[in-house]
Design brief:
Elements: E1 2-7, E2 10-15, H1 20-26, E3 50-53, E4 59-61, E5 72-74, H2 78-93, H3 109-116, E6 140-142, H4 152-160, E7 167-169, E8 176-178, H5 195-199, E9 205-207, H6 211-218, E10 224-229, H7 250-260, E11 264-267, H8 268-287, E12 296-297, H9 302-311, H10 325-333, H11 336-340, E13 348-354, H12 358-362, E14 379-382, H13 383-392, H14 414-417, H15 424-438, E15 456-463, E16 466-474, H16 479-492, E17 500-504, H17 522-538, H18 548-558, H19 564-570
Parallel strand pairs: 1-5, 10-11, 10-13, 12-17, 13-14, 16-17
Antiparallel strand pairs: 1-2, 3-4, 3-5, 6-9, 7-8, 15-16
Helix pairs in contact: 8-10, 8-15
């Protein structure tokens, strides 16, 4: 069914149920809004999107009003514009005038709206609340003074992620965001995924900025600073420099990092290949030899690990013991690499560039993250932090020539690259699991069943004459369905519904991570993922086990997957946290 209407004199036809806001976009009319985000349901919280219905003269909020047959709508006239301007001025009267020093300066939806409405001064009294900044998680920073009560962070935290760390406190003009119970973020159920910061229109929630610390370490002549970049960073950072979303800037990032002063440039994709050898071997042990419980569940996402320990600790026996790829590279940088260059581990300072705010938490999660004798990854910065640092360094990303990584811990396969998209870990693991089970290189390495943005993806594969049932879930709100199915089968004594499960906390996987450039939508997630799959297709090696530098690492140092040395450096364990059980 479709409906037909007229918007600003322009005929429009859309599917029944389409909001006036979305219908207007079809005819190139932009209705301003601060509370609406494409990922989220409408809340009509800001009131800026009002439009007038000709038949009744009433003004309605376009984000939550479905278009109806025969409607004639005016979206912009002097009266409507003045009302919108008044609403923005009221919001600004309660907002600190700190744009120049705010982390969202020049990338803030409220700031942009003030510019659009030509708001430079206001006659309203300034009533900014005196509220403390909460940086207790050391991953994300909550500044409730800058909150405009749009509700985006609460909706994504509660509905999409099912974490319930944030809520509205107080009422009326005193309304503010905070963890339920008015406790600190560190005490709350927060899993540091950063989706609240990714959806916040202002600087009320941002990443914990550690760029200045990295600059200080780069200036220390006693340190040997090394760096690694995650798969999803390469296809998103370009958005901060005017590149088309999904543009792969791998070589340019390597070059920029060297100019910034890093002594060696590695790639987390190498760690992804290593993860696949270890995790694939774990799967074979469980699936083919019955050593361990099925399904095996991936563990490379720290927000998912945090969520699992808090809410689903009964799943610990199913969890892969593998550390995440960047932790593996961190451990090897202070052992294998340190030995190669004859440098003390304590002098190596490892920086991870991640699409993720939860990685800031992960690097100090447990003593397992100190398997080199020192903290394996010293600091984790987001894609956004690196973009700012590159700009501070005066590097022109449009013209800088491409360079190669330091291949010892930097060469990678296409399988390592696709880790950055939902389903990529599963697809990479399948490619190598086929080799490990059958002893033969698979003739087919592309598995469409794992790709795309469907919340839960399921499939069945044939491996050595046996069926392997797989599931992929992304966005923590989709995990409950998968985990409950596993739990129900166990309780009934039935075979597991799947043998292998991939979980990523952020919608779209790491390409939609909480530390990626702002403005993420499904369109951007797909563009970024496409960039990763294109690199996979063009790679010299498509499977992790074909990476000769991984083979060399095992031959020279680790011995074999799941060896004693591998377990010490590359694996971890998990702890139930019953105080968070629902």
């Amino acid at each position: 069914m479709t409906v037909k209407a007229i918007i600003n004199g322009i005929p429009v036809e859309v599917a029944e149920g389409t909001s006036i806001l979305d219908a207007a976009k079809k005819v190139s009319v932009k209705i301003p809004a601060l509370c609406k985000h494409p990922d989220l349901d409408h809340t009509a919280a800001c009131g800026i999107c009002i439009v007038r219905i000709k038949a009744t003269g009433r003004t309605l909020r376009a984000c939550c009003t479905p278009l109806e047959n025969g409607m004639e709508i005016t979206t912009h006239d002097p009266e409507i514009v003045n009302v919108r301007r008044g609403i923005v001025e009221m919001i600004m009267s309660k907002h600190p005038n700190e744009c120049v020093t705010c982390a969202r300066n020049q990338n803030c939806e409220l700031q942009t709206m003030c510019a659009d409405f030509n708001i430079h001064t206001t006659d309203l009294d300034n009533i900014v609340p005196d509220l403390p900044v909460d940086a207790t998680t050391k991953s994300i920073v909550l500044d409730p003074r800058k909150c405009i009560s749009c509700g985006r962070c609460i909706q994504v935290c509660q509905k999409d992620q099912n974490v319930w760390a944030l809520t509205f406190m107080e009422r009326g003009i005193e309304t503010r965001i905070a963890p339920a119970g008015d406790i600190s973020m560190a005490e709350s159920p927060c899993v540091k995924c950063g989706q609240c910061s990714a959806h916040c229109p202002t600087g009320a929630i941002v990443e914990y900025d550690e760029g200045p610390d990295v600059w200080a370490k780069l200036a220390d002549p006693e340190l040997h600073c090394v760096v690694q970049i995650a798969p999803a960073v390469r296809v998103a950072i370009g958005e901060a420099f005017g590149f088309k979303p999904g543009t792969n800037l791998t070589g340019k990032i390597y070059a920029a990092l060297r100019r910034m002063g890093f002594k060696a440039v590695f790639d987390t994709n190498f760690g992804a290949d290593l993860t696949i050898l270890e995790e694939g071997s774990e799967f074979v042990e469980r699936f083919a030899h019955g050593k361990g419980e099925l399904p095996l569940i991936t563990s490379c996402c720290p927000a998912w690990v945090d969520f699992m320990e808090k809410y689903h600790s009964d799943m610990i026996p199913h969890f892969s013991s593998c550390k995440s790829p960047h932790e593996m590279v961190g451990a090897l940088s202070k052992t294998y690499y340190a030995e190669k260059i004859k440098t003390e581990a304590k002098k190596i300072y490892m920086v991870s560039v991640m699409p993720c705010t939860a990685k800031k938490y992960e690097i100090q999660r447990s003593d397992d993250m100190k398997s080199s004798g020192y903290q394996d990854v010293d600091v984790s910065i987001t894609t956004r932090e690196l973009a700012r640092m590159i700009k501070q360094a005066g590097i022109d990303m449009q013209s800088i020539p491409e360079e190669q990584p330091d291949h010892l811990l930097g060469a990678y396969s296409g399988a390592g690259t696709i880790f950055g998209a939902t389903g990529g870990v599963m697809e990479a693991a399948i490619r190598t699991a086929l080799k490990l089970v059958t002893g033969q290189t698979p003739g087919r390495v592309d598995f469409e069943v794992t790709r795309g943005l469907k919340g839960v993806k399921e499939g069945v594969l044939e491996v050595a004459g046996k069926q392997v049932k797989i599931a992929v879930a992304h966005g923590l709100g989709n995990v409950e369905y998968v985990i409950n199915k596993v739990r129900e089968a166990k309780q009934k004594g039935e075979a597991p519904p799947w043998h292998f499960i991939e979980v990523m906390a952020c919608p779209g996987g790491c390409v939609g991570g909480g530390g990626q450039p702002y403005g993420v939508t499904d369109e951007l997630r797909l563009a970024r993922a496409k960039g990763l799959y294109q690199e996979d297709q063009a790679g010299m090696w498509r499977c992790s086990h074909d990476n000769p530098y991984i083979q060399k690492l095992y031959d020279e140092y680790l011995g074999k997957p799941l060896s004693e040395k591998s377990h010490h450096l590359l694996h971890t364990h998990y702890n139930p946290r019953p105080q968070y059980q629902r």
